[in-house]
Specification:
two-stranded antiparallel ribbon, 2 strands, 268 residues, mainly alpha, 67% helix, transmembrane helix
Length: 268
Amino acid sequence: MIRDITIGQYYPADSLLHKLDPRVKLVGTICYIVALFIIKPYTGYLLAALALFAVIKMSKVPLKFILRGLRPIIAILLFTVVFNLFFTQGDPVITFGIITITKQGIKLCITMAIRLILLIIGSSLMTFTTTPNNLTDGLESLLGPLKKIKVPVHEISMMMSIALRFIPILMEETDKIMKAQMARGADFESGNLVKKAKGLIPLLVPLFVSAFRRANDLAMAMEARCYRGGDGRTKMKPLKYKGRDIISYFVLVVFLAAIILMNHVGLV
């Protein structure tokens, strides 16, 4: 289960999506998320799914690798679907006891499931195709205007990049600690919820110790290299837009315009 968590991982490949400017991918991800929340079922979601499938093909990231990242959120997905199915008021379809399933509840739970799946896959593509360094540079560039109001843009971008970088590292560390504890007789599966929670204590304590140790090592390494924030720093590879980036922005505008038009004319 731990190894199924793919968020924050970078998948190296020679694709057009990997070569795009990180600012384009950040803006594209934001636009895609906004589109998922403004469209209505179901033709709009079909368009979003087709666009996402085309981008996945362009990225050359295996679909099996992308879908593997959905396994850890199955429990959250099922909870969301069930909650909307049983607690949405409307026209009754099935009634047994105090529980009533409504037409609006069925429609809402299907919509939420599709939206969550597309949202997770779409946002994961950004980290699959962008290195942490490029992601930091792109985020810092996009937030650049906020420097005028004294917002520490460089530090914020650096923290987000480090957090994404440490997710797969901590997942790997968790997997190693869990296997070591299981070899010593620890049981993380059997028992009720309370027993399972208590069984996680031998896992969480060494994990927190390891995380703080890594954070301290990183801080010492940055101080040893005289890191003092973003003031006066230059970049070895400055970001520059190319022709493919301008075309990508145009495609994004067309995609959002199509979604808005479909909503306006009632096709979704």
